[in-house]
Design brief:
The structure holds 3 protein chains of 3 kinds. Helix content of chain A is 73%, strand content 0%. Chain A is mainly alpha-helical. The longest helix of chain A is centred in the middle third of the chain and has 26 residues, at 49-74. Chain A starts with a helix and ends in a 5-residue tail after the last helix. Chain B is mainly α. In chain B, helix 1 (5-25) runs antiparallel to helix 2 (29-54). By secondary structure, chain C is mainly alpha-helical. Chain C is built from 26 helices and 2 strands. Classes of the chains: A mainly alpha, B mainly alpha, C mainly alpha. Chains in contact: A-B, A-C, B-C.
Chain lengths: 165, 101, 635
């Protein structure tokens, strides 16, 4: 299992790096899909079958398709002529700060000593257990997300309309 | 063979850092938005790792909600980008600095 | 009845509120009635209290009535309380009585004026404040009344505020009074600092333990006296009073002759316990009084504006009162205050009646021979003039004679000399006024001459009442006969006599001689006036020509106003200009503008942080996250 994890993790990191450093946004988007698939695989390893499924469906499917649509729609200038990155100060500063963030997080994680985990009981994270929780303890947040999505839809429609009447 | 939770966290941290770098150094606002998605994913991964470790489904619940929010955010964000592009004909954030002073 | 002493100032206050708030929409008669009735009720209450008070044994004649505690802070206690003792009762009677008459007079006199309700509003407020002033049981409440009457005086002098000279005179009165008030306030501070109390009776009881001539007592009394010189128009702060004649005539009668200006005398008499311990202060009071008496009297000789003559005569008579207080004869001072209130109010009201008949004419050179046109005014005016000149048996004779006597036996010969000279001059210029106004040939303008008429009864009745008082008012203080000086015996418990020198007991013959002498002096003054203005009307002009320089000096009031202008007003103006253009415009503004400039300069550089690049902001956010998380983790 750990071997599968390492393979998937390697794919995720490489594709993630390519997302950041690819010149054309279209390629970044495609590499991001790869990244999402790899992460979905890791979810499966962690006994989160339902989440893995919607990761593929919602993220790699719906959201990324939306991205691709917008990229096509905007019909960008020839990206080869444009600089990918910000000016030097921002670039170096951003990378250094990101490095600090990593160090800080690692240091923080190392503060906590956790005993090794146990084997998972059967049925953990499958659709049934999630559904049970979703419609009992998390019913209200669940309903609120539906409102959130509605608002987002309305907002997106209003913003993307060519002209307001 | 169980994957230790620290592995999940390490991967999560690495992906998050990649996202941060992307957000901070890329000029293209679309890529920045993608990097934000990647950071969200990194956080989701940490949730899933802990959910697996503690054998509790609540962590997955949070991932579910984060995804919902992410979907909404992308929808609105992309709509904004389209609107800005219509007005300013650019997707490069260093050309969008009328907030200056 | 004494429990209702608070009603006395309350009635005028209610009148003030009614007239002030809704007076504009009320008919004039109602406004006048409200004003007069409010003051009249105060007078009635005062009279009731007076008669009840008389029943008390002389030893117990000081009653304090606390209405409420006004200010309490630490050991500092100021009560809204009234002190009823002979002194305050006398003052209450004078103030409310004379005010009532003048209110009634004003109803008719002011009838044609704009802002009739405004006049009565101010007048009622004035009476309220004056009553508080004289009935307060502590210095602070007295100061409230003191300032209140000052305010009303200012408002009423500037009653014709469209007139530049009137509003200027109002301002002058206010500013000059402020100088005196400053002294008075310092005196109050010193009193609290020294005695830890501002209650009259407590302070006076504590003061009795101090030796005669104690420095602090001298300082306190001198400060208080500075206040008195301002309010009572003594040298060197008298200049506002003649200008105060810009106000309507009833105001001059009430405020600037009969009541408010006597506040200083009242205050000195009230603080007799303090003054009697301070020989230096007494000398100052007597000297200032004597000098003011002669100084103002000489100016009065050369004035042609009838109200100004009366104004200078007021200043001069106030000088007499202070002279009396200064030689320790407080009772005589208060006695003269009372008789003066009667005849001076009458003189002013009479001059108002003359003005009324002559369509507002004030210049005595344009009067003459009004006797037959205005008989009541003439006769009442004449009685008052006889009273002020000090002719037996009119009121002024008794009080003035007492003062002259005491200035000689208790004071110094020089005081007596000055006072006698001033008495001569007073008799001269007052009769000069009478002769120029009512006798001789008519010099009235033709178009005015047809309209000369006697004033309506509403005006003449108060004149007659006051004339009656001017005639008989002196008989409460008959000298020589044992026990006949009721006034002195009544007032004595409220006064602390001078203890550091033995009381003089002049013989009856000596007193009688003094009286005859002062009568002769007054008679000489009258005769001189008669000779100059009736027998030989050309004589004044000749004399004027002969002594041109001196006459000019006197006619221009010794140029005191001009000197004050040059020495005080102009330097202050210059200094203020300097402060404004240099210190304020450059210094203060410079600091303010400079600090603003520094901020602007710094922000001009600081704003470069705001690049407008969204990633700079993201960077800053992440930096903040890192720092805070770092702190939380590494703690």
């Amino acid at each position: 299992m750990q071997i599968i994890f390492f393979i998937l993790a390697g794919v995720a990191l490489v594709s993630g790096g390519l997302v950041v450093f690819q010149r054309h946004p279209l390629r970044s988007a495609l590499w991001l899909i790869v990244n999402f698939f790899a992460v979905a695989g890791i979810y499966l390893l962690a006994h989160a079958e339902f989440i893995a499924a919607i990761q593929v469906i919602v993220y790699a499917g719906a959201i990324m398709v939306l991205f691709l649509f917008v990229i096509m729609l905007l019909n960008l200038r020839e990206p080869e002529a444009e600089a990918r990155f910000m000016h030097l100060g921002q670039k170096v500063g951003g990378i250094i700060l990101a490095g600090f963030t990593v160090l800080l997080l690692i240091y923080g994680v190392l503060q906590v000593v956790l005993p090794p985990g146990k084997a998972a009981p059967p049925g953990l994270g499958n659709t049934e257990s999630i559904a049970r929780l979703l419609f009992t303890d998390y019913l209200l947040p669940f309903e609120v997300t539906s409102v959130l999505l509605l608002v987002a839809i309305v907002g997106a429609v209003v913003l993307a309309k060519s002209k307001l009447k | 063979m169980v994957v230790p939770v620290s592995y999940y966290l390490a991967l999560s941290i690495a992906l998050f850092a990649l996202g941060v770098i992307g957000v901070l150094i890329r000029r293209n606002v679309l890529v920045i938005l993608m990097c934000i998605e990647m950071m969200l994913n990194a956080v989701n991964l940490a949730f899933i790792g802990f959910a697996d470790y503690f054998k509790a489904v609540d962590g997955q619940m949070f991932v579910f909600f984060v995804m919902t929010v992410a979907a909404a955010e992308v929808a609105v964000g992309l709509a904004l980008i389209v609107a800005i592009f219509r007005n300013r004909a650019t997707v490069y954030v260093d050309e969008l600095n009328i907030l200056k002073w | 009845m004494m429990d209702y002493v608070w009603l006395i100032p309350l009635f005028p206050f209610v009148g003030f509120l009614i007239n002030g708030l809704v007076g504009k929409s009320l008919p004039k008669n109602v406004v006048g009635t409200i004003g007069s009735v409010a003051v009249g009720l105060s007078f009635l209450v005062t009279v009731c209290i007076f008669f009840q008070f008389l029943k008390l044994p002389p030893g117990a004649r000081a009653v304090e009535k606390v209405v409420f505690t006004w200010i309490a802070s630490g050991t500092f206690q100021a009560q809204a309380a009234f002190l009823i003792d002979p002194l305050s009762l006398i003052m209450l009677l004078i103030v409310s009585g004379v005010s009532t008459l003048i209110h009634i007079y004003s109803v008719s006199y002011m009838h044609e004026e704009e802002g009739f309700y405004r006049f009565f509003t101010y007048l009622n407020l004035f009476v309220c404040m004056m009553l508080i002033l004289v009935s307060a049981n502590n210095f602070l409440l007295m100061f409230v009344g003191w300032e209140g009457v000052g305010l009303c005086s200012y408002l009423l002098i500037g009653y014709y505020y469209e007139k530049q000279s009137a509003s200027d005179a109002g301002k002058k009165a206010f500013v000059v009074n402020r100088i005196g008030d400053f002294g008075f306030l310092l005196g109050i501070f010193l009193i609290f600092w020294t005695f830890g109390s501002i209650n009259f009776r407590e302070v006076f009881a504590l003061a009795a333990k101090y030796p005669v001539g104690a420095g602090i007592i001298t300082a306190i009394t001198l400060c208080l006296f500075l206040g008195a010189t301002g309010k009572s128009a003594q040298l060197p702060l008298y200049t506002w009073l003649p200008d105060a004649m810009e106000g309507p005539t009833p105001v001059s009668a009430l405020i600037h002759a009969a009541t408010m200006v006597t506040a200083g005398v009242y205050m000195v008499a009230r603080c007799s316990a303090l003054y009697s311990l301070a020989p230096i202060s007494l000398t100052v009071v007597a000297t200032v009084g004597a000098l003011t008496a002669i100084f103002a009297a000489t100016i009065g000789m050369a004035q042609f504006d009838i109200k100004r003559v009366l104004a200078y005569s007021t200043v001069s008579q106030l000088g007499y009162m202070f002279l009396a207080c200064g030689v320790g004869a407080y009772v005589s001072g208060i006695f003269h205050l009372m008789t003066h209130a009667f005849f001076k109010a009458l003189l002013f009201l009479g001059s108002g009646s003359v003005m009324h008949g002559l369509s507002g004419e004030l210049d005595m050179r344009k009067m003459g021979d009004l006797k037959k046109h205005m008989p009541i005014t003439y006769w009442t005016f004449l009685l008052a003039t006889l009273a002020i000149a000090g002719i037996f048996p009119f009121a002024g004779f008794f009080s003035k004679d007492e003062i002259l006597l005491h200035s000689l036996v208790d004071g110094k010969a020089i005081y007596w000399g000055i006072a006698t000279a001033a008495a001569f001059i007073t008799a001269f210029y007052m009769f000069r006024a009478v002769f120029m106004t009512f006798h001789g040939e008519s010099r009235v303008d033709h178009h005015v001459a047809h309209h000369i008429h006697e004033s309506p009864p509403l005006m003449t009745v108060p004149l007659m009442i006051l004339a009656g008082l001017s005639v008989v008012g002196g008989f409460v203080g008959i000298p020589l006969i044992e026990g006949a000086n009721v006034f002195r015996d009544f007032l004595a418990p409220a006064i602390t006599p001078v203890a550091f020198r033995a009381a003089a007991h002049p013989t009856a013959t000596f007193e009688l001689g003094m009286m005859l002498f002062s009568m002769t002096v007054a008679g000489l003054g009258i005769y001189t006036a008669y000779k100059m203005y009736i027998l030989f009307p050309d004589l004044p002009t000749q004399i004027t020509e002969k002594f041109r320089t001196i006459y000019d000096l006197v006619y221009h009031k010794y140029y005191v106003d001009e000197v004050y202008d040059t020495v005080v007003v102009e330097p202050i103006k210059e200094g203020s200009n300097l402060l404004w253009t240099v210190v304020d415009a450059k210094g203060v503004d410079g600091v303010v503008n400079g600090s603003a400039g520094i901020i602007a300069y710094l922000s001009a550089h600081l704003r470069k942080l705001e690049t407008g690049f969204v990633q700079n902001y993201a960077f800053a956010i992440l930096l903040g996250v890192v720092v805070i998380t770092g702190y939380l983790i590494g703690r």
